[in-house]
Amino acid sequence: MSHLYKLIVLAGALLVTMAASAQAPAKRTIIDALTGEPIAGASISCADKACRCGCASNAAGEFETACSGCTSHTISYMGYQSYLLHASDHAAFIRLAPVEGLMQEVVVSANREGVKRSEAPIAIASISHRTLQDAKPASIDLVLNKVSGVNMVSLGNEQHQMSIRQPMTTRSLFLYLEDGVPVRTTGLFNHNALLELNMAAVKSLEVIKGPSSSLYGSEAIGGVVNFITLSPTAVPLLKLSAQGSNQGYRRADVQSSFSRGRWGFVLSGYHARRRDGYLPYSDFHKSTLTARADYRFSPSASLSNSVTWLDYDSDMSGSIDSAMFAARSFKNLHSFTYRKVRALRYRSSFSKQWSEGSKTTATLLYRDNAIGQNPAYRVKDDYRKVSGRWTGKKDLAHGEINDNTFRSYSFTGQHRQALNWKRAVAIGGVSVDGSPSGYDARYIRIAKDTVANKYVSYQATDSILTDYATNLNNYAAFGHFEFSPLEKLRVVASLRYDLFRYRFDNALTPSAFSGSADTVNHFYRLSPKVGATYNFSARTGLYANYSEGFVPPQVTELYTGVKVPSLEPSVFYNWEVGGWAEVIRGKLSADVSLYQLEGTNEVVSVRLDDGTTANRNAGRTAHKGIELGVNATPAADLTLRLSGAWSEHRFTDYVEKGTSYNGNAMNGAPRWLCNAEAWYKPSFLEGLRLGVELQHVGAYWADPQNTARYGGHDVLNLRLGYAFRGVDVWVHALNAANAYYATIVSKSAYGYSYTLAEPRNITLGLSYDFANLFKKN
């Protein structure tokens, strides 16, 4: 309760400040009707066709009409419904309503600056602010899985794996951004990186599918997920919300923002916890807060500063075996494993608009991150089968406690220049990142109850398994160019050069277990991308692209458990075509993409002549698929969406520890993914919403030998909500049919592993925007 009390006190103080600042500006301001953010560059024109006068809103969304003889003005902006402003209308704020599902919407992640979706030759999807408001997700997977071809696997308590044009995996094949800046540094990938995000600060999401190393660097292979945060609002905002579920989950959120003069402020955060959930020993808590302050030096120059703080502590439940899964036993083998994360991110960005087509941005970034674990996945029984015979003690197991820390100091500068030739745009920039890090692990001796089959206690030892420090430096330069040689044709090309320097310092005596001797390694890569779009009309278009992506070795792959580091970057080659069409104007639209992705030089564990194993670049994989998205509005009150994907992921040249997987389907790779959703928002009762969603994950192999197959699962989610005068109340039934399934299944030499999904979850939530008390117009 102390966390909630602090949020309420802080929100109350902000409310007083906001009330004092809620004065109508001298100029009219155009804002987003959902977020309250100002809209810069909106067009204001006289509705009288005989009059040609007009203007555009400035960076603060403000404008003054100069058409004194006009009785009305038309206000328009891409992705929003047009607004007719009559001379008798003296509203201080003009609220433009976003239009969902338009192909003409602007996507930021496609070229780091913002471009029409119809001119971006990539598979990119947006999750709008409206979708986030309707879904009220307690975890990110509840909205990311609405995107075709995306399967974010929930491991409980916001922990996760990811699958975008790749099998479900913990590998470093996905890049997570916050306002275009990586959440973590390269070389220190963590598959749970998204739990470090503050979802209360997120306005919308964009997902690029396929390699994007040409713009964003390494790890952008299967996909890039960019979380776009809320900017200071032109009208005051102070929203408090609380929710709770029958599965022991409780959460309290605060969102606040206001602007005054040249300043704009945003404060957002939440505290979540679970107690006595569906699994014993599965509690957690997370507290996160983001503060942002923007200062506008002039209409064309601004400075934005934001800081995000995170405190996360979770029991690590682990998985169960096949016998327990078959018995539908919600038990937990663990009683002491945990994961703790402390993170701080600070970002300062300066932006200067030199002219309508010329803009410079410079960003400084600081990260401070620490992860402490007693990991369930490191717990291994002493009693095991070796060479066909069982050996070891049944009441003994082995594990470790580890700590991983890093700090990052980063700079990125870029410039965008529009050219007076073929609608050409050039974007270029550089980035520098220095990240010192440290890792240590200590052996623990674990006692196992052989009757209950449960790990009951552990004893710390003086045995140090790993103790090293690394200093990772990344220097990069990137360029992007696009132009229209024909009116309907848009050609886009990107190129990025990355240079990495890893310095490794081992505090232990080098060995095949503790790691290599002190050394320095360098990696470099030139990543190209070229594509084109052809728009037959404003409603129909095609695109094609070729791109390459790469992943340098992770520190744990390169140095841990080897005497001499010898890995090189893995490289991926991608070919892709797609298209979109508004089949029935305002009623039915669809987009489709087809891709073929080849992975080379992938890291595999190779058995050496002396019986030991080591990591080597000896793997090749092939990935292909079709992704389809359909949006329909058969009636004014009803919207339908279908997101589906068929894919095939295979080992083409992959021998690991002496076992060949050549030609096999990759494990953890469902052929079919589907998410279908319907929303009914009756016009006779404004503010009411009813949603039905079905998530399908198809069958897949649980092991690379293709000997064990899991049948997949189907999940039904129901959502009901009502918003009125600043109040929003909702009831969600997730897994409403109470399906019994595992979010991920695997098989190894130790047996089967099932990660249990949450049973039926009934969530009740309530929020109120206190700024509604004094909002004007």
Share of residues in helices: under 10%
Question: So how many helices?
Answer: 6
**Uncertain runs with pLDDT below 50, 5 residues or more?**
18-26
Mean pLDDT: 90
> How many strand elements?
47
Kindly provide the radius of gyration, computed on alpha-carbon positions and rounded to a whole number of angstroms. Answer: 27 Å
Biggest sheet, open or closed, and with what strands and sense? 22 strands, antiparallel, barrel
Strand content: over 45%
Structural class: mainly beta
Shape: globular
Distance between the termini: 36 Å
Q: Top keywords for this entry?
A:
777 residues; 5-stranded mixed sheet; 6% helix; mainly beta
Characterization of the model:
By secondary structure, the chain is mainly beta. Helices cover 6% and strands 57% of the residues. The protein is built from 6 helices and 47 strands. The strands form 10 sheets. The chain has a 22-stranded antiparallel beta barrel. A 5-stranded mixed beta sheet has the order 10-15-16-13-14. The chain has a 4-stranded antiparallel beta sheet with strand order 3-2-5-6, with no helix packed on it. Strand 5 and strand 6 (83-86) form a beta hairpin. The chain is globular, with a radius of gyration of 27 Å.
